[in-house]
Design brief:
Helices cover 32% and strands 23% of the residues. By secondary structure, it is α/β, with parallel strands linked by helices. It folds into two domains: 8-179, 3-Layer(aba) Sandwich (Rossmann fold); 191-401, Rossmann fold (3-Layer(aba) Sandwich), CATH 3.40.50.10300. The strands form six sheets. It has an eight-stranded mixed β-sheet, sandwiched between helices. Strands 2-1-3-4-5 form a five-stranded parallel β-sheet, with helices on both faces. α1 crosses α9 and α5 (93-101) packs across α8. The radius of gyration is 25 Å and the shape is elongated. It starts with 7 loop residues before the first strand and ends in a 7-residue tail after the last helix. The structure holds cytidine-5'-monophosphate (C5P).
Length: 403
């Protein structure tokens, strides 16, 4: 598995109906940690507006070859030099033909000629056009060139109603193929277990105690660890998130379920990251039937749940153990106390009192603490931060935990 973290990806979009999927592809590339700039052909702009891709990529969209203003800013040669990778998705039959012929009649084909970066092509066209001899010859020419990789097309129902080969690959598959073009990352071969999301502690068959954890941070870490080449198992409480590509997922409900799943994985775990918001207490008894309304006041007896990360850190074999400290005050002091008390190797502290960086938000701002020091990280999207955290964790991971 490869790694797109901090890679500069130039996305070329040509004029096919699949151009609407480019918006999602921009997101997927960014979620993998890449910086993205977009070039659109004239045809592409008939299918999706530059404004959409500009807003998503956070950079102006490039389209004109001979535009004075653009050339004064980031002209075609600068763009070609900027890119670590050129992805063309969708690549229409016309674009494949122009690339194969080595034409330079618009910005995208010119940059494709001028860049030393590798080229990943995701073709998309009608199945008959895909099977045409001319297309096959163009593809053979392109595939024979060093640095050119094809992704797709996929098979299925097409926009025109035909069924067959020619659909653009899904954005997640293209982003994965892009990542695989780069060296596998800092956690190559490391077996990682990550807990994520909330736990639910049953009161009766219909009610439970839980919290607002969305699981976003844990899932972003799982994705980043997989991008860095790790073999990742995500032990997740109930959340509404898709499993990141290439990640194993074990679904659990209660803290006890989560502990059992983690203990089962302990023998094959080099790095344990506890990101779950585990309920500290559970009802002392789970009622077999729904509890009925009765007296004006009622109270609930609770018992302590096991501490999952502390159990893993105290047991054998002991992986490298990373915990989280979500606090609303004295964040660093509480985190340092937790680091020592739970015998962790590293703790990631964050302030959850702010709505902008708290449980359900997309952003986070954290500090890393370990027995010998600490490091503050600037506020960033959870997906970006996850890649930074994985890079830091990898730096701290001892050689004995690498296979
Ligand atoms: O004690 P506190 O809940 O603040 O500690 C947070 C850290 O401990 C997190 O890494 C969390 O995943 C982990 N934890 C755990 N099991 C518990 C409680 C917390 O693994 N029962």
């Amino acid at each position: 598995m490869g790694n797109l973290f901090n890679r500069k990806v130039l996305l070329g979009v040509s004029g096919g109906i699949a151009a609407y999927k480019s918006a999602e592809l921009v997101r997927q590339l960014q979620d993998a940690g890449a910086q993205v700039r977009v070039i659109m052909t004239r045809g592409a702009q008939e299918f999706i507006t530059p404004l959409t891709l500009q807003a998503l990529s956070g950079n102006p969209v490039h389209s004109a070859l001979l535009d004075e203003e653009a050339e004064m800013g980031m002209g075609h040669i600068e763009l070609a030099r900027w890119a670590d990778l050129l992805v063309i998705a969708p690549a229409t039959a016309d674009l494949l033909s122009r690339l194969a012929a080595g034409r330079a009649d618009d910005l995208l084909t010119t940059v494709a000629l001028a860049t030393p970066a590798p080229l990943l092509i995701a073709p998309a066209m009608n199945q008959q056009m895909w099977r045409a001899d001319a297309t096959a010859q163009n593809l053979a020419t392109l595939s024979a060139r060093p640095g050119v990789t094809l992704c797709g097309p996929a098979e299925g129902v097409q926009a025109c109603g035909d069924v067959g080969l020619g659909r653009m690959e899904e954005p997640a598959t293209i982003a994965r193929a892009a990542a695989e073009l780069f060296e596998s990352g800092a956690l190559a071969g490391v077996r990682v277990v990550i807990t994520a999301g909330p736990t639910r502690e049953a009161l009766d068959p219909v009610r439970y105690i839980s919290n607002h954890s969305s699981g976003k941070m844990g899932f972003a870490l799982a994705r980043a660890a997989a991008d860095a080449g790790a073999a990742v198992t995500l032990v997740s409480g109930p959340v509404n998130l898709d499993t990141p590509a290439g990640v194993n997922r074990v679904d659990v409900v209660s803290a006890q379920n989560m502990l059992d799943a983690c203990l089962e994985l302990r023998d094959s775990c080099d790095l344990f990251i506890a990101c779950a918001a585990v309920a500290d207490y559970r009802p002392a008894e789970v009622q077999a039937d729904k509890i009925k309304k009765g007296a004006e006041h009622s109270s609930l007896a609770l018992v302590r749940n096991p501490d999952i990360v502390a159990t893993i850190a105290a047991g054998e074999p002991r992986p490298f153990v990373v915990g989280f400290a979500a606090e609303t005050q004295d964040v660093l002091a509480y985190a340092r106390d937790k680091l020592a008390r739970k015998n962790l190797d590293l703790i990631i502290a964050n302030d959850v009192s702010s709505a902008e960086t708290g449980f359900n938000s997309d952003d986070n701002e954290v500090a890393l603490l370990w027995p010998g020091g600490e490091q503050l990280l600037a506020r960033a999207a959870k997906s970006v931060l996850a890649h930074q955290l994985i890079a830091y964790i990898a730096e701290h991971l001892p050689a004995t935990k690498r296979n």
